[in-house]
Amino acid sequence: MTSVEAVTSALEKLGIKPSAMVEHDAAMTVEAGLQAIEGKCPGVFVKNLVVRDKKAGLFLLSVRHDAKVDMKALPQLLGVSGGNFRMADSALMTEKLGVAQGSVTPLAVMNDTEGAVRLVLDKTLVADGATVALHPCTNTRTCSISGAELLAFVNSHGHEPLLADFAAAAAGNGNGGGGGGGGGGAAKPKEGGKPKEGGKAKAAGGGGPTKGAGKKENASEKGIEYTKAGNLPKWYEQVIVKSEMIEFYDISGCYILRPWSFSIWEAIKDFLDAKIKTVGVTNCYFPMFVSEAKLQAEKDHIEDFAPEVAWVTKSGDGDLNEPIAIRPTSETIMYPAFRSWIHSHRDLPIKLNQWCNVVRWEFKHPTPFLRTREFLWQEGHTAHATKEEADVEVLQILEFYAAVYEELLAVPVIKGRKTEKEKFAGGDYTTTVEAFIPAAGRAIQGATSHGLGQNFGKMFRIEFEGADGKKAIPWQNSWGLTTRTLGVMVMVHGDDKGLVLPPRVAPLQAVIVPITMKDVDEGAQLKTCGEIAAALREAGVRVHVDDRSNYNPGWKYSYWELKGVPLRLELGPKDMAKQQIRVVRRDTNDKEDVPLSILPQKAALLLVQMQHEMLARARQTRDSYVAQALTWEDFMAKIGAGNLVLTPYCNEKEFEELVKKRSKEEALAAAGEEAEDDRAAISLAVKTLCIPYEAPPLPDGTPCFISGKPAVCWTLWGRSY
Description:
By secondary structure, the chain is α+β, with helices and mostly antiparallel strands.
């Protein structure tokens, strides 16, 4: 493989010095690359595809990161009559260009001394004044050079590129490229229309809208630049960063939880901790490290986690005698201790919970809160003398999780049982609460409560002597809820101005903004604000006075709207004269002038009302996306419309796999694609979400929508995060 040094040396020979060279984690996707260089590397990030046609040969397409490449339009775009282009396999790409998958770059033509690959450049990359950001033959670095320097480099290595207008092709004008066979000069692209922008931000397969789509007109850099409907991924990223919930970190998939988000997690923690203690659960803490031997003790259980386990192999400069894993979950850490503690029926039940972090080294593109390599959670682990007692607890905990979402976060959830295929590895059964993100048309697993049966007891040889003097194996449960809750809340309630926080978890429930004017006694005004704040705190309202003098009231309004504070209280000179204050609701923007004498009671009432109405609106919206289907055709039509779909189902694993396979194939065919990137954060495949506990009656003889066999249950399906 070509080294970075070889590339920089080749650039230097031409007098080219990159304006930036950024080192980062391996970026296997365009999204990961953009995230890695944000604010560090100037220029348009370059996306690269190596395609082949049996007759025309190999082509390297280097385009803008947000360009759409239509494989069906390539023959006309590249001047290849009757071409049938496909993605080239990685072995051929490495052989001809000398780079590994994920590290392709137009600079790699330096390795193609035989001229086996035809280079095609998006004409915008080499327009006057253009700067490009690209990998120097490795996806752990990105450098910036000008478009003119890129042209000079590839030409110096015998690759005079074809310039193509991919934007025109994407807009439906397939003649965006020039003719140009043989070794003639770069073809002049024909002029075409502008690319289409915007559109509904349906997350699909990890792609979704291009970076520029859905951008607001005249958007302020301080505010949210993207609309939720137009570009959900970019909207989400900007909301959590600009509202001061998250700060990106230099290790991909790990994030800094700033006080604004961590205080919401603390509210969830306090609420749930009080709930679980009512059923006798106590908190503890176990080490985060686990030996390889213990981790492998339960092979069925660890199989699903194995690809995600992070290992510690060195101490200082020396290697450890044996690698140590960082916990992906704690069954194999805690249950050897259970074996030491459980001997008699009098030792049961054991009900333990720990609030901690876990590490799962996800290979898919990470998303803050939703899919991260390190996250915070609680994990409960209990052991019981009887199955009946254990089963009762599984559903008790599930109700607590539903309360976290519905009572605290105002997010409606569907409670149900996972199918055999989707249950927790090594357990008897799994129960779940499933949330729904309308803007994405996707479900997301909210939290799970597992009945483990006696499987782990057998594996770890946990036994006790029953009241009858006989040896028995305890029945165990485990259950967990994570910081994913915060991401779900943001995506369900947020709007184009930023966060919309449910009052029960908002770090601040009200902010007082004094409106200062000339000839106003600011001292008296601030004194009144302080008195109002004190009265609100006495009524249990979390309140802050924004008395910063370097920002005007309009700026403050936008700032606190972005952070999602439920109530904004505006106090101007006229309000002081009338002994009133203007109250503005964040969720509805309703405004009301309230006498100061009743403000504490009014504010407390509004917060309760707002909490209730946010849940009601979210439930009404969610319910409008739940549909029923009795046939495959109807099922796919409703899935395509972004719905959750309830179907009669035979509940056999092989047909669950068939649904995944067929749904993905049909979605790819409809999009004109052949394959889906395995590293994509989200998939086009449809999966089971749960067998809902609340479902309509199923008439006898109803056929399964996929197999035609007699259905045994209603099952909820959807595309999922």
